[in-house]
Amino acid sequence: MTTAPEQVPDEVATVGERAKPAASGDEAALSVRDLTKTFGDGEETVRAVDDVSLDVRPGTVVGVLGPNGAGKTTLIKSVLGLVIADEGDVRVAGVDVYDDPRAAYARVGAMLEGARNVYWKLTVRENLEFFAAVGGESPGALRERHDALLEQLSLAEKADEPVNDLSRGQKQKVSLACALARDVEVAFLDEPTLGLDVESSVELRREIRRLADQEDMTIVLSSHDMDVVQDVCDRVVIMNGGEVIADDAVADLIDVFRTSAYRLVVGTDADGSETAVDDETRERLRDAYDVDTFESRGERTAFDVALGDPERFYDLMDDLRDADLTVHEVESIDPDLEDVFLELTNGDGATPADRANGGDRQ
């Protein structure tokens, strides 16, 4: 992971306003309008989802992120109809989830983290056939699809083995296969790479992109693995306190936080120096450039600095020269999705708007 920028760009306060809906409600594979869900009564009331609206185009992979308790799981379960929202509407492929759940479920597949997504006493193939039948499809008519899924997920050789005999990673892949056992229009995948080895995770990412790009499937993916989200998602929705605090294309969201950040390695010509940067110089760098960490590398010292204004780089070079320091290495640092996520949530759940108001969300 790269080092996060020290300052939150002003633009982030308007990320939610800047991000345009991915489709109109009529065009969307998934449309959520003014969704609200609370739990408890009186002073114990928790607003788990707070007036959330979003639209997702067909063939799009959307990542839903948020710290624990942000409301993302409640949102997904409300969209699936597993939790009935207090207010709002949800449509999947134009079908109202609450008015006609059977028709909506026929268009949806889901893999929920922490849930028993498969029957362990059944074989891998029997699970695929069972979940296809539950969805109203003829298992025999989907044999070719199931064979392709088993091959793509490296499960073909395990097709006739009970799921209970498989490794944790293989069970995870069976859960995914069952979610895709029918020709659904929208798939919800909660922590799909959990427990997978590196090779299996790469295979799964490739399959998710193939489903979106070649089969026009819409995929809503929730994961704590930022690399997976950044790798496969077209768009990311970040939640906190039940609200959507950011909704944008992954690349555009990262660009909001792109700043002039560098990692420098400096040294001194003095013989026998235990550290290149003395206490007085460190204090000046802290005050002038918000440098907070120095790493000693023998007679050299490394530190990261976020300058904001690129012109300040020349001021930094002048200050280092005045301190009799020689710059040996300069590396540009770019933010990644994890940096953006931590900045938006302040690492502990506070949004940029909260910080602007001088406090955390209550």
From TrEMBL:
Region (Disordered): 1-27
InterPro entries to which the protein is assigned, alphabetical: AAA+_ATPase, ABC_transporter-like_ATP-bd, ABC_transporter_ATP-binding, P-loop_NTPase
GO MF: ATP binding
Keyword terms, alphabetized: ATP-binding, Nucleotide-binding, Transport
Record-linked SUPFAM superfamilies: P-loop containing nucleoside triphosphate hydrolases
Cross-referenced Pfam families: ABC_tran
Superkingdom of the organism of origin: Archaea
Residues in ABC transporter domain copies: 30-266
Family the entry assigns: Belongs to the ABC transporter superfamily.
Protein's UniProt name: ABC transporter ATP-binding protein
Taxonomic source organism: Halosimplex aquaticum
